[in-house]
Write the structure tokens for this entry.
Amino acid sequence: MLFRELNQGKCKSYLLACETTRKASLIDPIREKTDRYLAALAYFGCKLELAIDTHTHADHRSGVFELKEITGAKVVMHRRAPAPHVDIHVQDGQTIDCGELRLRVLATPGHTPDSMSLYADGKVFTGDTLLIRGTGRTDFQGGDPGLQYDSITKKLFVLPDDTLVYPAHDYRGNTQSSIGEEKRLNPRIANLSKTEYMELMAKLGLPLPTKIQEVLQPNQTALDDDRIAFPTVAELNQVRQLNPLEVQSLVNSDSPPLVLDVREPNEYSGELGHIRGSKLIPLKDLASRATELEALKNKHVIAICRAGVRSTTAAAILTSLGFEHVSNLRGGMLEWNEHKLPVER
Ligand SMILES: [Fe+2]
């Protein structure tokens, strides 16, 4: 396996390639370094097959979509990822082939619900789940310290001790570690019980990443348009969240709400299906097409998407446009399907 870390900074991006076929994967590419990746691919005579994000990043713009556009590579993310335009959704235990190279997916939620690690050839790429002598923060973006403890101890620390660890970030100049070393020496988690770990994570009190909204919105929603005023964190937090069963009973009531699906057309007719009678307006078109909903300003509108993140943005946008009664389907069509509620395709 041809292997390089390409950024040489605090954010890490990894190039993995099959030496026989020259097919390559990039893990956690950063948008502003796209040129550097293209140069590296050309230098090594590789063709990019897979652009993989270990999770939805909050501190930098992801490069996967730009790389897809330029090279035709397929974008790979965990099935919980909120962004549209992901080509391959993967889940725990699945393998992805890149030439003769085989990557194994380990779902490791906790930093975010869509966090995953990838194992290949004695190396594990741990995203922001397990860092070198640290762990990823769990205090926003759906983070959960208990889940993260289980991910690290039950999915990563069970790998062979000599497995090399490559995280998505390192702030102290480390370049690699091993599972054995982290099990013994990681001050955040070594020898801690789950309760102790959760207490420690609750006390960290870290500041939010700078420019978090400017980064998260495009990474989560693919919305990248200066003319659209992104909702603030406070506005997003105010969106009323309904669970699938609450939405189902409203849909079946005598005065059903408008169910507004803000995914892309291919998702609407895709594997997760859509709710009968729902109206499709992709999030990127919502601000310009809101006039179509003008007559419904006083009516209950329930926004829906794949994972419930894009639709929370949509709900906040509609509220700011004067819609009085807007809610969101928490967990989106993923959770709707998990409850085995009816869909149309
Ligand atoms: Fe992260």
About this structure: Residues 55, 57-58, 111, 128, 136 surround fe (ii) ion (CB under 6 Å).
